Each structure stands twice: as C-alpha cells, then as structure tokens.
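haha ok so turns out i had the wrong file open the whole time. this is the CORRECT one, sorry everyone. sequence first:
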Amino acid sequence: MDDVVITKFIMCGGCTPTTEVCDGIDNDCDTLVDEELGNTTCGVGACTNTTDNCIGGIPQTCTPLQPTPEVCNNIDDDCDGQIDNFTQAASNIFGLCFNNTETCSLGVWYNSTSNYVPANESCDTFDNDCDNQTDERVCPRKMKNESIPLIQALNKTTSPVINSNLLSTILSINNSLAPNLWINDTHINRIRGGIVFDQEKKAVELMTAIKNDRQTPANVKGVCDVVIPTLVEADRLLAQAAIDYAKAAPPGNPTEIANADADMTMALTYLTAGKPNLAVLSYRQAWVHAINAKA
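then structure:
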C-alpha cells in the first residue's frame, strides 16, 4: 500500500473509500458529504426544470414545471416542443376577410399567408374591401335606390315648392330605375339607357334647386349634399363601365373611345365648377361614345 493510500486510510479513521452516493455519508473519505452528485434537467420549453440529484442525503427526482396556455412570446408555454405554434382570428374579419387568421412566429403576429387580401370594392354582392359594407358606391343601380329613402325620410317642409321638388326628384330617380332600362346593376340597355342619364340629370337639377333655395331647412340641404354627388357618381360608374367594355379586347373604335375619355374629363371639369347637372350630361355623352365604339 503506497503512502498516499495509507495517509487517506488513516485520515478516514480506518474507512475504506467507496463511490460517493446520496446517503448523508462521506463515502469517499474526502471530508465532504454527498458532493459532486450533479443535477438532472427535465421537461421542455417553459416546463424545463433542473434539480440537484441529492439534497440532505435524499435522492431527488426531477419533475417538469406545469405548462400554461400558449401565448405569442417566443416561448413554448404549453411545453409541447413547439414554440408559438398557433393562430387566431385576424383583427379584421369582415366581408371576404371572414376566414382570415394571424399566425404567431418568434413572438410576433403575422397575417397568415393564405389570407384573403382586401381589394377594391366590386359590384358583386360581396364585401371585397372588408370594411363591413357591401357594394358601397360601386353599384349604380343600388346607389340610386338607396338615395330614395333618404329623400322620403325628410320631414315636410313649409314650402310647397320644396315639397313638390322633393316628390319630383323621387319620381325622376324611380323613372331612371325602370327595369327595362337596365341589363344588370352596372350596365344599362344600349338602346334605352340614355333615359337613365336624362332622368338623373333632372333629379340633380331639382335637388340643386332645393339646396339653393333660402327657405330650405338645414336638414334638407344636408340630404341634398349627400344625394347629388351619389347620383352623379352612379352616372360616372355607368359611363366608365361602358368605356371599360369598349376598351376590352377586341377594343372598339379608337376615335369613339377617345371622345368618351374626353367627355369623362369634361365631366370632372364641370364638377369642379359646381355644375353637377352638366357633369351628368357629359357622362351621358361619354356613355354614348363608348356604346358606339362597339356598335
């Protein structure tokens, strides 16, 4: 037995050194108890836990921490081995966005790649731009129809002339909505469609007269400020729809198309000058040129 072993044997009081185990005894005779027995790590994600293998002479078992509901924080909260592996409804789920979701990645919410992307509103009974409104200001026939209740809801005024003009306006709008004048919500009959513009021009002129009458109550003028641009915009859409068709392959007569475009520009000039009735007339002329382009 060499000197080192003899010395250690004597220091241990005659004990024979063995492998250290967790029992509260200095098994290896180095004056330390239960040392260097290490620790154990268990669990995944937020449930990861590290425990000393021996505490107070008692062997320990590593128990993972309790999982919690997953949240978007770049941590595996529910301890399933995946981080932020979930989606939620998108902030805007109106219209065609109804099925859109957001996906969490690295603690940040992103729009899911399969989401519907809001588009310009179309006259198709869908909420294309996901603003919780359907076909707003894109369906000429619908726009005209929706103007009528606004006028009908007005209280009786004290002026017989104003009352008569209001009724005449409603009549003109209704005349422009005659079913035989329309093909669908955005196109009018190429033979009789001019009547739509003629009746709308009359309605705009009546509403303008009501608006400019000093006896007209403020609430009535407010409706005029809504109805007049709505009717004019409806006519612009009708003219533009005809122009778009004329330009579609195969394109129509280029001269007629150029004239139609010029009339559209002139209509804008009239609107800027505060002459909506003349703008409607220009839209009518643009529509005629567009129709003739593919006659």
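The chain has seven helices and seven strands.
again sry for the mixup
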